[in-house]
């Protein structure tokens, strides 16, 4: 562990509320998160929001090229001064706005991190947009969000993220992390998950329409699909099919794929 970084003589970075920072201080949990990566189909890893590098130092022990992306300039300065092996691979950028092809080109890479609660769902949506390059994704979320991503149909917490992620990835909820291991401690438990891209992750339907149908369905999740999908102006005879009598949380991702295939001939393209 010691070979990849030097001890700091500077003080700790101050956690900033507006960035949703809660710095992990438990070394064992950091090591466990680093071990969630299976290190297959890629040779590069991107850590989002490394802070003071408690997870980073364990990633640096892995046989992969580690990059980190951090929006907080104070954290970037700390990393540059203390993690010398990361020189040239510390990207002071906003992950949600940064074009990652500037770093990775078209190469495959994994993503991991202790994700800020306030942007964790947006991180997942961006990951889905780049799924061609991301065979594996792991990290720490608010427990409720991590559970939701891994939830199966029939649950009240099953939703848009559940369907979209599980259409392309195998989702595993791995373990729960208490607030006490963070500085400052959050008000809720955290949860660590792993997403492993499916061997065949291309859908047998129009993927853009699939996303649109899933999002439109769950925007009115208490209604049946017959009502929630009214905006698609589907013909009455199609809307009489039994599947339109279901609520969105009753359908697994495969059923949403079948639903999309049914709707495709009638949908107005938004490409």
From TrEMBL:
Enzyme class label: transferase
UniProt catalytic activity: adenosine(1518)/adenosine(1519) in 16S rRNA + 4 S-adenosyl-L-methionine = N(6)-dimethyladenosine(1518)/N(6)-dimethyladenosine(1519) in 16S rRNA + 4 S-adenosyl-L-homocysteine + 4 H(+)
GO cellular component: cytosol
Hydrolase recorded as keyword: no
Residue ranges the record marks as coiled coil: none
Entries under PROSITE patterns matching the protein: RRNA_A_DIMETH, SAM_RNA_A_N6_MT
Sequence positions that bind S-adenosyl-L-methionine: 22, 24, 49, 70, 94, 114
Enzyme Commission number(s) from the entry: 2.1.1.182
GO MF: 16S rRNA (adenine(1518)-N(6)/adenine(1519)-N(6))-dimethyltransferase activity; RNA binding
Keywords, comma-separated and alphabetical: Cytoplasm, Methyltransferase, RNA-binding, rRNA processing, S-adenosyl-L-methionine, Transferase
Compartment(s) where it occurs, according to its Swiss-Prot or TrEMBL record: Cytoplasm
TM regions (residue ranges): none
Main location: cytoplasm
InterPro entries: KsgA/Erm, rRNA_Ade_diMease-like_C, rRNA_Ade_Mease_Trfase_CS, rRNA_Ade_methylase_Trfase_N, rRNA_adenine_dimethylase, SAM-dependent_MTases_sf
RNA-binding among keywords: yes
Source domain of life: Bacteria
NCBIfam families: ksgA
Family in the record: Belongs to the class I-like SAM-binding methyltransferase superfamily. rRNA adenine N(6)-methyltransferase family. RsmA subfamily.
Role played: Specifically dimethylates two adjacent adenosines (A1518 and A1519) in the loop of a conserved hairpin near the 3'-end of 16S rRNA in the 30S particle. May play a critical role in biogenesis of 30S subunits.
Name of the protein in question: Ribosomal RNA small subunit methyltransferase A
């Amino acid at each position: 562990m010691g070979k990849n970084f030097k001890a700091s003589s500077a003080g700790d970075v101050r956690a900033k509320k507006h960035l949703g920072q809660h710095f992990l201080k438990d070394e064992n949990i950091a090591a466990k998160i680093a071990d969630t990566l299976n290190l297959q189909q890629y040779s590069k890893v991107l850590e989002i929001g490394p802070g003071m590098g408690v997870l980073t130092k364990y990633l640096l022990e892995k046989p992969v090229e580690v990059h980190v992306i951090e929006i907080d300039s104070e954290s970037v300065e700390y990393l540059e001064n203390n993690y010398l092996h990361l020189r040239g691979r510390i990207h002071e950028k906003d992950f949600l706005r940064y074009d990652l092809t500037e770093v990775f080109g078209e190469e495959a890479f994994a993503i991991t991190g202790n994700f800020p609660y306030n942007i964790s769902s947006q991180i997942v949506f961006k990951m889905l947009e780049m799924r061609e390059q991301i065979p594996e994704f792991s990290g720490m979320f608010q427990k409720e969000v991590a559970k939701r991503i891994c939830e199966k149909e029939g649950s009240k917490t099953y939703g848009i993220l559940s369907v979209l992620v599980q259409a392309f990835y195998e989702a595993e909820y791995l373990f729960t992390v208490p607030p006490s291991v963070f500085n400052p401690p959050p008000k809720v438990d955290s949860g660590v998950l792993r997403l492993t891209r499916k061997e065949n992750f291309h859908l047998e339907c129009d993927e853009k329409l699939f996303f649109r149908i899933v999002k439109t369905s769950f925007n009115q999740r208490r209604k049946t699909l017959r009502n929630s999908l009214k905006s698609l102006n589907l013909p009455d005879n199609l809307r009489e099919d039994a599947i339109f009598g279901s609520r969105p949380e009753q359908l697994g991702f495969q059923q949403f794929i079948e639903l999309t295939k049914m709707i495709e001939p009638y949908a107005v393209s938004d490409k």
